[in-house]
């Protein structure tokens, strides 16, 4: 029976065909399985790649956001710094202006103090000199009352010693007068004798009018009491005699 079936070509051919079909089916199934696994692996790798790329994109986005935040912080810090610098600059300028104002005020006070001091000094010297003018006039009159010739003659014929005492008194008065005039000169107090000047009611006080055809009318011909200047200020007018106006001119 076995020998018969082996020897039967139809049976052998059928079995061979069946074997080939089974082998082809097996090969086809194995190929499909391998392709499926490969596709799965490729899909997994693609998903992992996408995940990695998404993670990197997220990290980059976070970095960008962080960088923008840092830039905003830096801008705000720069803005605050500039505002602080402007405020400090304003404070410096204000302080400088205050210092300049203070220095100007100090200089003004110094100038006013100097002027006030000079004014007080000026007034004090003027008042003191004015009070001494009559004393100087009296000393001058006393010295002029006793002529030098009288003193000389008296000393030559003096037997009692009185002439010598009178001479000593005269010399003392003269020296005192000269010393006072020297002090006046030191403080710029100057005697004013306007002989020969034209009469000026701002500087002269006419006491009498005299006849004098050799001089122009209203010319000062004699000083009764000397005037005095303190620097450029007249502190006492001069009492004078002036030439009387001629009759023909009066007409």
Automatic annotation (TrEMBL):
Q: Name one GO biological process term.
A: protein import into mitochondrial matrix
Query: Which species is the source of this protein?
Result: Ceratopteris richardii (Triangle waterfern)
Q: Which residues form a coiled coil?
A: 64-98
- Molecular function via GO: adenyl-nucleotide exchange factor activity; protein homodimerization activity; protein-folding chaperone binding; unfolded protein binding
UniProt-listed CDD domains:
GrpE
- The UniProt annotation puts the region (Disordered) at 22-56
Please name the PANTHER family in this protein's record. Answer: GRPE PROTEIN (PTHR21237), GRPE PROTEIN HOMOLOG, MITOCHONDRIAL (PTHR21237:SF23)
Q: Give start-end positions of Polar residues composition bias.
A: 38-52
Keywords in alphabetical order? Chaperone, Coiled coil
Keyword Chaperone included in the entry's annotation: yes
Q: Which InterPro entries match?
A: GrpE, GrpE_CC, GrpE_head
Please give the superkingdom of this protein's source: Eukaryota
What family classification does the UniProt entry report for this protein? Belongs to the GrpE family.
**Protein name according to UniProt:** GrpE protein homolog
Cellular component per GO, a single term: PAM complex, Tim23 associated import motor
């Amino acid at each position: 029976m076995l020998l018969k079936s082996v020897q039967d070509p139809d049976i052998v051919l059928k079995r061979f065909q069946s074997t080939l079909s089974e082998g082809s089916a097996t090969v086809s199934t194995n190929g499909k399985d391998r392709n499926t696994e490969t596709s799965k692996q490729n899909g997994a790798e693609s998903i992992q790649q996408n995940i990695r790329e998404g993670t990197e994109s997220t990290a980059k986005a976070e970095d960008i956001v962080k960088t923008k935040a840092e830039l905003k912080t830096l801008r705000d810090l720069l803005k605050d710094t500039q505002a602080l610098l402007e405020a400090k600059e304003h404070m410096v300028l204000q302080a400088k202006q205050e210092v300049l104002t203070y220095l100007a005020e100090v200089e003004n006070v110094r100038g006013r103090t100097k002027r006030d001091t000079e004014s007080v000094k000026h007034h004090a010297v003027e008042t003191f000199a004015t009070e001494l003018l009559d004393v100087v006039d009296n000393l001058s009159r006393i010295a002029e009352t006793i002529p030098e010739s009288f003193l000389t003659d008296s000393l030559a014929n003096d037997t009692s010693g009185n002439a010598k005492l009178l001479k000593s008194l005269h010399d003392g008065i003269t020296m005192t007068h000269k010393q006072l005039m020297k002090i006046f000169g030191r403080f710029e107090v100057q005697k004013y004798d306007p002989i020969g000047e034209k009469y000026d009611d701002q500087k002269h006080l006419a006491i009498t009018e005299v006849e004098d055809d050799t001089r122009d009318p209203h010319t000062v011909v004699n000083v009764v009491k000397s005037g005095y200047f303190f620097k450029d200020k007249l502190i006492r007018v001069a009492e004078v005699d002036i030439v009387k106006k001629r009759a023909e001119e009066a007409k």
